[in-house]
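Hi R.,

Here's the chain you asked about this morning:
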Amino acid sequence: EKEGFITEKFVQLLEKGIKSQPENWVWSHRRWKHAWKGEQ
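And the predicted structure, written out as tokens:
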């Protein structure tokens, strides 16, 4: 098996779960630290 196989499978399953029920996940991390035009 290639290196990182288990991690890759875990991430795929996690992504599938998030996409199927996004309302059950808390998104508190501000990924984009800079404000977009018109956003303050």
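The mean pLDDT is 81.

Let me know if you need anything else.
M.
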